[in-house]
Amino acid sequence: MFQNRAEAFALVLPAAIFAAVVFLAPVLILLSEGFRSGDSWTIQAYIDFFSQSLNQTVFLRTLKLAALVTAASAVIGYAAAFAIVNLPPKGKGRITGLVVLPLMISPVARTYAWLVILGRTGFVNKALVAVGLSDEPIRFLFTETAVFIGLLQLFLPLMIISLISALENMPRDAVPAARVLGANWLQVFTKVILPLTKEGLVIGGTLVFTGSMTAYITPAILGGSKVLMLETLLYQRVTVANDFVSASVIALILIVMAFAANLLLKRLATARNKR
């Protein structure tokens, strides 16, 4: 397309400069705050951060909820994606549209809907009391369960879309051939479907995990101050305590966790493929 690299570089250069000035420079300045102490460079801010029990609890909670949401999304996503891929073309388009539809709705509106559903006078509590499973309303809001449900509903479509794309690129005769050779459905999934769709799982898992870690609205509304996560803790440190050093530490932790999750998923997929 281009006669030489200079032409291609000239087209890319404006976008690269814009990204560097608007995105990279502010992020690097923020991250550097966690390593500076006066005129010297140190990691004392990170040592102080992890030495506090509250920060340790928030870090582990964020990691746990992100991992649980990713695992649940993978299980539900594979079942849903496999069913959608095997639908007739007309039905496949309609169901895929329904999967994409929540992504067009504001996360704020989708999260506030759970306040109505999970509240003490919400649909869930009314149903539990009506069928006799509970004598009084159960407190679902401001718990890890509420945050988990909200994050799962928020990011599940991303996993389903990634897996649909991966399953559609899988050879059509792979599953029938495995069944003819005597493989049960568990063997078909672990030996055929999973290895052939690992790229979609890596992409979907990365999107869901990083999204669950960095989402602010859902943990803030459904968890409040009782279920702090790293992103809500970061917001408090900046707006309430005006502590940009701790904010820098939390920001770098979130970035490192996102890259680590992507590398781990790729490593697991590669290791399973080699076996």
TrEMBL record:
<keyword id="KW-0472">Membrane</keyword>
<keyword id="KW-1003">Cell membrane</keyword>
<dbReference type="InterPro" id="IPR000515">
    <property type="entry name" value="MetI-like"/>
</dbReference>
<keyword id="KW-0812">Transmembrane</keyword>
<feature type="transmembrane region" description="Helical">
    <location>
        <begin position="65"/>
        <end position="85"/>
    </location>
</feature>
<dbReference type="GO" id="GO:0055085">
    <property type="term" value="P:transmembrane transport"/>
</dbReference>
<dbReference type="InterPro" id="IPR035906">
    <property type="entry name" value="MetI-like_sf"/>
</dbReference>
<dbReference type="GO" id="GO:0005886">
    <property type="term" value="C:plasma membrane"/>
</dbReference>
<comment type="similarity">
    <text>Belongs to the binding-protein-dependent transport system permease family. CysTW subfamily.</text>
</comment>
<dbReference type="Pfam" id="PF00528">
    <property type="entry name" value="BPD_transp_1"/>
</dbReference>
<keyword id="KW-0813">Transport</keyword>
<feature type="transmembrane region" description="Helical">
    <location>
        <begin position="97"/>
        <end position="118"/>
    </location>
</feature>
<feature type="domain" description="ABC transmembrane type-1">
    <location>
        <begin position="59"/>
        <end position="265"/>
    </location>
</feature>
<feature type="transmembrane region" description="Helical">
    <location>
        <begin position="138"/>
        <end position="164"/>
    </location>
</feature>
<keyword id="KW-1133">Transmembrane helix</keyword>
<feature type="transmembrane region" description="Helical">
    <location>
        <begin position="201"/>
        <end position="224"/>
    </location>
</feature>
<feature type="transmembrane region" description="Helical">
    <location>
        <begin position="9"/>
        <end position="31"/>
    </location>
</feature>
<protein>
    <submittedName>
        <fullName>Spermidine/putrescine ABC transporter permease</fullName>
    </submittedName>
</protein>
<feature type="transmembrane region" description="Helical">
    <location>
        <begin position="244"/>
        <end position="265"/>
    </location>
</feature>
